[in-house]
Amino acid sequence: MGANVLWFRRDLRLSDHPALAAAASAGEVAPLFVIDPVLWSRSGPLRRAWLAANLRALMEHLPVSVRVGDPVSVVAEFAREVDASSVHVTTETTPYGRQRDLAGITLHETGSAYAVTPGRVKKADGSPYLVFTPWSRAWRAHSWPRPATYGHVSVSSARSDPQALAMLDAAIEASPIALPEPGEEAALKRWHQVLGGLERYGALRDRPDLDGTSQLSAYLKVGAIHPRTLLADLDLTLPGHQVFATELAWREFYADVLSRHPNSAWADLKPLPIEYDDDPAALALWQTGHTGFPIVDAGMRQMLATGWMHNRVRMIVASFLSKDLHIWWPAGARWFMEHLIDGDIASNSHGWQW
Questions:
Q1: Which contiguous run of DSSP H or E holds residue 128?
Q2: What's the pLDDT tens digit per position in 228-262?
Q3: Euclidean distance between CA atoms 223 and 9, whole angstroms
Q4: Which end of the chain is more exposed for a tag (fewer CB within 10 A), N or C?
Q5: Residue 242 to residues 136, 208, 214, 253, 278: CA-CA distances in angstroms?
């Protein structure tokens, strides 16, 4: 019997990793990451750099084989190389990821990028929720397991493609900003800093002038930390902890909506009888932070300079583009995805629509 392939995607960590635990329980593990040219080209230089940096951080602790090409064929080829008994993955629920996984070889899916896998929270009659508040109550009632644990992991040697490794290093070098410290250790360090001050989170998180948010979204995006790890550390009898859990619930709600309505990634979930303006000049002023409205321009320039924008300011600049400049939201959502280090299709597109 050969090794059990663990195909990493949005789960670049070692702790609280159910798919890794499942692969390890079956024998030797052959870790693999595939640079998908489709996703790579869509990501933009910042998100490519952040992904590459976090993958490199993981590789310091685990011999991951890195390949480049169509994942459907690359994973199958790699499985043959290592005489794989099985291929293990974290369940993917985005439209592109789901279609890709169904088109390839048989995969053993364990866990997901969320505390509760999108699609599992339903009404009593089995129909989906359309409103956040009742969904969030059902999400909490559904609950989630404790973080996954496992013992010793036997790992095979890496078999990387030099071209793929060169792509990672070139992406990091080409980053348009100075990246935050990448990797699981950095994510956990940031979380422990945030956890110690959560009693003030509810009061400070909406203040753009203060460092009152967790800034964990970029780590959650690449799976350097799992939301279940965060939830396990919360005391939900404390108000600040409750507010933080609700913010995690929003992320999970948006993923749930996308899993049920794939077209809502770039089209109106609820079409409205609104006429939009096609105004490239106004869009360009908004994109570069030259509208003349200070809070809007400050937010847009912050994003261009740092790859991040405060959540409250994201709401302000989005409202300005849609309701003041009368430009359809996907134009702004695409700009966000290109320039935000934490760009996530579900949270971004549905945050814009909200």
A1: none
A2: 999 999 999 999 999 999 999 999 999 999 999 99
A3: 8
A4: N
A5: 12, 21, 14, 16, 42
In this predicted model, what pLDDT tens digit does every residue of 96-154 receive, in sequence order? 999 999 998 899 999 999 999 999 999 999 999 989 999 999 999 999 999 999 888 99
Q: What does the pLDDT read at residue 187? A: 98
> Counting Cβ atoms within 10 Å, is residue 90 exposed (0-12), middle (13-18) or buried (19+)?
buried
Nearest to 229, CA basis, from 244, 213, 250: 244
What tokens appear for 28 in the block? 């030797």
Q: Which of 223, 208, 197 is nearest to 309 (CA)?
A: 208
Q: What is the identity of the amino acid at 162? A: P
pLDDT of residue 57: 98
Residues 6 or more apart from 197 whose CB is under 8 A from it?
A: none
Neighbours of 272 (CB within 10 A): 5
257, amino acid identity: V
Residue 162, pLDDT > 80, answer yes
Element (H, E) at 4: strand 4-8
Those residues with Cβ within 8 angstroms of residue 111's Cβ, 6 or more apart along the chain or in another chain? 11, 17, 18, 19, 90, 91, 117, 148
Q: How far apart are CA 201 and CA 230, in angstroms?
A: 14
Are 216 and 190 in contact, with CB atoms under 8 Å apart?
yes
- Chain position carrying tokens 């602790």: 61
Q: What is the pLDDT of residue 175?
A: 97
Contacts of 54 (CB under 8 A, 6+ apart): 12, 182, 183, 222, 224
Task: Give me the amino acid identity at 69.
Answer: G
Written as six digits, the tokens of 115 are 């505390």
**DSSP state, residue 207:** -
| The length of the chain, given as a count of residues | 354
Beta strands in 58-189 (DSSP E): 65-68, 86-91, 108-112
pTM higher than 0.85, yes or no?
A: yes
Task: Give the tokens for residue 195.
Answer: 């956890």
